[in-house]
Amino acid sequence: MTNIPEVEERIHENELADGPSNPMAQHVYDGFPKRQSRSAPSLVLGAAAIGLVLVLASIFGLWLLRSVRRLNREVAHLNRQTEQLNQRLQGAEQHVKSLDQRASQAAAAQAAPAQAAPAQAVAAQAAPAQTPTIRPEQLPDQVKQPEATSAAQALSPLEPEAAAQPPTQAAHKTEENRTQHADELQKLKLSLGQIAETRRTADGVVLTLGEKSLRFDSGKSAIAPQYRAILNRVAGVLTPLKGYSIYVYGYTDDSGTKEHNLELSASRARAVRAALVKAGVDPSLISTKGFGKSKLLVRDSNAKARAANRRVEIGIVSATQVSIKQATSKVATKP
Predict the structure, then answer these.
(1) Sheet holding 204-209, edge to edge
(2) What is the domain extent for residue 225?
(3) Is residue 297 part of a domain?
(4) Is residue 268 part of a domain?
């Protein structure tokens, strides 16, 4: 059985829900704002905001992932470059060590004659002067001796300072001259190597003007205008040289007769010489010769092989080496 307080409470709740039955109270009740329920558009806007946040978060995550991958690639590239630099440094250190070893060996080689010279001088002073006795069977050797003396006299003007100095100083001076000469040839090779194929030889440097730098048509010796710039560059390197001789050698392919190829190769060598002289090289330093088809680079009869064999070689040799060879050959050819 329901008691009175519970009934009164339910009546009060119903009045709050439906409003007071009294008109005056109803007017006051209508003045209070009623609670509004959440509408559907608000839910849509909230869902859209959440979706937009998720999309932005996904885009940011993809951008961050790509940035990390790019940084990883750059780091790997830098690591490879670091390894290459370390390898180059190791190679340079080994090269420096080898140079140090060569320098020490050269110093030891120079010190050995210096130590032996005083002992030889003491032995020469202590030994009594003796007059050599020439026997009949020794006459041919004595006849050859003046020729050797003349050869020594022919070579001696090449190094007058070295001849006038003591043996140790003369050897040191000769070694300095050889080193300086080798350095000059190396610089010359590097300069000409930027123009065409260049190689070192025992006597000097040889520049090959082949199909890549100077191309001759078959049976022709004329130089096309597009190759004048290359010859001008060669002349720019050769013009300042002092104490060198220049040799221009012409070669042909294997087509044609021997006499025709000899004349054609000589004509090509003369054409190159004329271009060098026109560009400023001293004509008295340049000699020419044609070898025809006697020295083929490629032994084949196709068009590519023949184009490779049509070439001109320019040899640069120290005038000192030329004088030594000429004096030696004169002594060797005497009866």
Answers:
(1) 197-200, 204-209, 311-318, 244-251, 286-290
(2) 197-333
(3) yes
(4) yes
In the block, which residue shows the tokens 């002092």? 242
Q: Which residues lie below 8 Å from residue 21, measured CB to CB, with a gap of 6+?
A: 15
CATH of the domain at 244: 3.30.1330.60
- Return the pLDDT at 131: 39
Tell me the three state secondary structure of residue 281: coil
- Lowest mean pLDDT of 87-96, 161-170, 250-259, name the range: 161-170
Q: Is residue 229 part of a domain?
A: yes
Assign 3-class secondary structure to 167-180.
HHHHHHHHHHHHHH
Give the whole-angstrom CA distance, residue 86 versus residue 115.
43
Q: What is the pLDDT of residue 274?
A: 94
Residues 6+ apart with CB under 8 A from 243: 318, 319, 320
| Phi, psi dihedral angles at 183 (to 5 degrees) | -65, -40
The total domain count for the chain is 1
Residue 57: the pLDDT is: 93
What is the mean pLDDT of the segment spanning 265-288? 93
Q: What's the whole-model pTM score?
A: 0.47
